Amino acid sequence: MFNPTPDQRKELGGKIRDFLNEHPPTDVDAVLFVDDHAAGGYSAGPDVPAGCRLLVRRDELDMIAVTNAAYDVDSEAGRDALVELVLERAERQP
Residue 51 domain-assigned? Predict the structure, then answer.
């Protein structure tokens, strides 16, 4: 299970913002991922690099953000809310 520290959560919030800016909604296969050391990244997908865990795909992130009214990635509170929602989703993955 991925249980990030507060600093790692903040870093993940920045990655989410960058991910959304770099991959438009039409990049539905783009993926956001982390490795065992909580280093995160993103790519055009659909696969994640070896040794990494998928957190969320681009289309899933849009759905999470819209259905939870947590889409303001330019504010720290909005990023924090998205991080929590993404981590909750990742925990439910098999």
Answer: yes
Q: Is 58 left (phi over 0), alpha (psi -120 to 50) or beta?
A: alpha
* DSSP strand pairing (52-57 vs 40-43): unpaired
Q: Which two tokens stand for residue 10?
A: 């903040």
* Structural domain contains residue 27: yes
Q: Which domain holds residue 31?
A: 6-92
Q: Is residue 1 part of a domain?
A: no
Using CA atoms, how far apart are residues 46 and 66, in angstroms rounded to an integer?
A: 22
Q: How many domains does the chain have?
A: 1
Q: How far apart are CA 94 and CA 46, in angstroms?
A: 17
- Write down the mean pLDDT value for the chain: 87
Q: In this predicted model, which residue has the larger pLDDT, 22 or 37?
A: 22
Quote the pTM value: 0.84
Q: What is the pLDDT of residues 39-72, one digit of tens each?
A: 789 999 899 999 898 999 999 998 888 887 766 7
